[in-house]
Design the sequence.
DNA sequence: AGTTAGCACTTGATGCTTTTGAGTGCTAAA
DNA sequence: TTTAGCACTCAAAAGCATCAAGTGCTAACT
């Protein structure tokens, strides 16, 4: 897209063609690619010797590497990067795929949480990689507290959040509640806890509220807890994976050690949130693992943030081996996120068939 | 518990002792156990030859098997079953464990969904196996409707469900709301929709309510939608796993093939729901995999249904290798579910320290 | 009777060497 | 500048001997 990025020196057309063929073949087969293969199967019109020379140079330049002397070449992180940025042919979604996507979208209009998740499931199925659904954290606070007494030991704490939504939490106490009790408590909350983030709740505040409640001081603690939960939950955004077991199918993750590494990565959901917040919010982002990064060296993560009014509200992505069908994955994710953003912003869902 | 079940013939005390030692040792070490080990490490006061004879008979009877001629013995499914039913010593939770459990329980009172999930997380950590949290589909209905007006276009619909929990939905309408409007609407719901399942909502009911609402008929539709959502969501049960990556640590799942089988099992959440519905609702259930069952042969699933008023509302369980620390897992799960049921049924949470 | 020492036997695991074959880099010729 | 040819490298596979754990059985012992 961005013209002719210079990565490790400019590449002749022939080098590009060879590099692309190697990466395409490697993505398709998962094995190191040798010069002979390129002559016969990819139709590079040169002898294997010539190709070997070129490959040696590409290796020198950092685009390729050899697992060992007598093996073929495998793309490096740099190689993949260059491939994704300038070499790759864009994949055209098939009609079936578009129909599947649109059907899913149509049936879920209106529920953001579920739409992201269903989309993610679909992506996992269409691409056959593990997909990732991220709902971003919003730093919400409470605008106003109100309540509803349910019975003599339970009341409902109703919190109008800084967004347009309302959160409710059921609060249980051992002491006996009455309308009076609870409404006093809620006035306290309205006085002390409006616009307050989880970290701002100090012990002092709690003590103050407790003394103000007098004999019903025992009410304060569970209510604070409920409040904390409400504010904190909206903070803990969540990351969900679909089709994790698809990872098992790829030979690069076929040793238990590698699986362990990958799974422990997946466990660290914060890492994915980090990547989201460090990402470019207006386009597809492609992380490709290498030795230094916390990212397992043979894996990649492709995702596209979802934004509303310039705010990132989540993302949909795909996690898999760095030998990934970038082209197809990128097209699929791109298509979906475009459409979802459209729906969120209230535009109508276009009919299947248009490109 | 159920006295002396006869499995494959009655066992002499000595056979029982040997069988128990073998299974204990195998659970601890994960390797086939030979006669020599029992003489030295477990303190069976007989010579290895005698033990070998007994082992041969236990094998004959189906409690043990040999991976190959020159290997020690490993428990069979039947062996584990017998062990769990009559041999195993019950594990005493440590003080630390009880404290952890109670703390978690205390902090989550009131929200069934989260309580089950947090409990599950804790179980995964305490036992170091993958834990399973099941929320059963309950055919829940609404016991009583109430409301709270939020602003002139939104109100909160509060539904006390047939269980002890409360669900709330925010309802938005374009027409202007007032206390009067909404409370009339809720009386209608209390008249027509109490104890009603999603399928029971007929068009006729809706029309009736709309005509009763007169000029505010437009309120009915979104409210019905909210009601439907509340009742329908509780229908789709879900199964969630925590600590799936712990599976990778056990040698029985150390080949990728085995992992594939296990993961594909885990993907089939319906299977777990099936097992729940075929289970004994009043006690710990232990499924032990064998060759025939859909269950991977070297895995086991231990769970305890959670019931309220005799109705199964979910379950907490543990999934792991059949070589599992049954004793500890069962104690942990038992303790937790007892306490959770207590909480759900409104009994106070006992202090840590009591057994 | 029940128990045990002793021993031959089986068999996966371990470690070694050999073979194989894919793929390279280099040289010399076209 | 390209290519044919060839010697070289090295991981993976195959073959093989050795090891050690654990058994089952027999014969002796209490």
Sequence:
């Amino acid at each position: 897209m961005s013209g002719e990025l210079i990565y490790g020196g400019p590449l002749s057309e022939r080098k590009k063609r060879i590099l692309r063929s190697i990466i395409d073949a490697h993505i398709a087969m998962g094995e190191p690619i040798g010069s002979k293969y390129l002559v016969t199967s990819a139709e590079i019109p040169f002898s294997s010797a010539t190709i070997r020379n070129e490959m040696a140079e590409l290796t020198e330049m950092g685009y390729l590497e050899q697992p060992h002397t007598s093996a073929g070449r495998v793309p490096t992180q740099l190689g993949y990067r260059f491939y994704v940025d300038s070499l790759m042919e864009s994949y055209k979604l098939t009609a079936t795929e578009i129909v599947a996507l649109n059907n899913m979208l149509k049936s879920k209009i209106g529920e953001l949480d579920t739409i992201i998740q269903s989309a993610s499931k679909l992506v996992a199925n269409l691409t056959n990689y593990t997909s990732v659904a991220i709902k971003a954290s919003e730093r919400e606070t409470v605008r106003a507290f109100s309540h509803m007494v349910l019975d003599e030991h339970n009341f409902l704490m109703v919190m109008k959040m800084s967004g347009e939504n309302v959160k409710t939490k059921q609060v249980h106490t051992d002491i006996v509640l009455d309308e009076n009790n609870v409404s006093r408590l809620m006035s306290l909350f309205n006085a002390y806890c409006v616009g307050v983030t989880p970290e701002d709740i100090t012990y002092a505040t709690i003590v103050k509220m407790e003394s103000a409640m007098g004999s019903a001081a025992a009410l304060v603690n569970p209510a604070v807890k409920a409040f904390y939960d409400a504010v904190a939950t909206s903070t803990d955004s969540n990351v969900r994976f679909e089709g994790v077991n698809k990872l098992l199918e790829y030979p690069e993750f076929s040793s238990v050690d590698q699986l362990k590494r990958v799974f422990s990565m997946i466990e660290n959901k914060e890492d994915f949130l980090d990547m989201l917040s460090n990402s470019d919010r207006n386009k597809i982002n492609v992380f490709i693992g290498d030795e230094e990064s916390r990212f397992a060296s043979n894996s990649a993560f492709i995702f596209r943030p979802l934004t509303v009014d310039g705010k990132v509200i989540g993302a949909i992505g795909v996690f898999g081996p760095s030998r990934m069908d970038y082209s197809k994955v990128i097209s699929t994710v791109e298509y979906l996120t475009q459409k979802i953003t459209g729906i969120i912003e209230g535009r109508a869902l276009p009919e299947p068939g248009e490109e």
Residues 351-355 of chain B have pLDDT under 50 and may be disordered.
